[in-house]
Amino acid sequence: MMAQPLNPFPERKRGPKLVSIEQERLERRLVIAFGFMSLIPILFLYWATTQRLELRTTLLLTIASALFGYFFIARRMIHAVVEVTQKVKALISGDLSGELEEHDANELGELARAFNKITKDLRSKIEALESSRDLVKKLLSRIGTAIVSYEGIDNLLSLIVENASSAMEAQLGSLMLVDGEKQELSVKAAWSTNGRHADQAFRLPLGEGLPGWVAREGRSMRGKAMASALGFANTEESVECAALCVPLKLRDHAIGVVTVLRERGAKPFTEDDETLLTSIGAQIAVAIENYRLNLDVERTYVETIMALALAVEAKDPYSAGHSKRVGFYATKLGKALGLDEETLHVLNHAGVLHDIGKIGIKDEILLKPTALTPDEMKIMQQHPLIGEAILKPVRSLQKVVPLVRHHHERYDGGGYPAGLKGDDIPLGARIISVVDTYDAMVTDRPYRKRLSVEEARAELRRYSGTQYDPALVAAFLDILNEKEMRLAAAKATGQKSS
Ligand SMILES: [Fe+2]
Fold first, then answer.
1. pLDDT value of position 463
2. 150-294 topology per CATH
């Protein structure tokens, strides 16, 4: 149905009823005002002269006519024009709150209606822009968090896809990344209004379908697509959806695409939608790239530190393989205690890195074949703190740091560096303490021969509750089977079983 144009001059009812002067067109109002202010007084003066009326009465009637013309006709017109001028000035200075009265049926009424329509349109456009700006700010802030975060980029991308899709009033959304080697797209994050899931194993060759085309060409596109092109199962509603797809571009090549779909019956996407999603896509691309770069730097750093840990061991032939075995035993004990996979991973790292601080200890103390003097002991006891300082800058090893710092604490509070007691000592540090000492006891040292496994077990029992957490000693002794454990430990560290 065509919209009816606004009629500035509604048809007036005909009849004996006098039409208000305010409803007359400006030209007629000017003529009437002119009549009252000049023509009528002149005619009246002429008539009064011929009739020889009293001068005072003549002047009074003449002035009355002129004043009527001015106050009731001309002044109202001027007032209306002044009002419009003021509102336009306010509008130019950014005040959109004002509205003009629309009761006049003449040009002024038309102007008022046009003015009110313009301000209303402007208000709604500004609201839409502010809402878009808020959305972009929210998304950019989340993307900013991703840039400095090493965890949960997958969750963050899902969140961005969900927010972007909702903002676009789309029912389905997905983020796919390009696999350069296989020349295909894979689903990284997907979202739908009714909880439908995209198949994570779904792959789309570059150039195929809307997302494939956008990824290959590196250009955004509006059109139609099916839910199956994003890895979702097609439903009756999702056949032939309105689609918008933008590339995630880095240095002129697409590393992925973001696609949003509006299911059947919904309006198609606009140029504004495309502009907004393109700017979101640009930020996502930067976030993904930064995340990958940070991950590379982090991986290199961790590998360097691991190499350093082994370098420390290389100085002392007696401790060869010790760190890796400590990591192995700690993981075994953690598993027996029912700890989760992530904690087991932390335990393994802590085992390998627990003595990395020894890199800061002089060789004459570190490699001394006889017992250390009290002063030398003090220096040696710095190694957990040196280890902490080395590992602290590495984000991905943050959970390892307290385990390295406290691996020489004693259960009775007599250890170092903090003298922590009982459960105040982090569980992982208590675990490292038990397995570190056990491995040291069953390997040769420059100042003593290794103990047998039975002797080492007896030592652990002896110091259970004073040096070690008794629950951990009991659990470790339970799983400690000489043959199995030593063979497995040797295999894990690449050492020959002894
Ligand atoms: Fe140590």
1. 96
2. Beta-Lactamase (3.30.450)
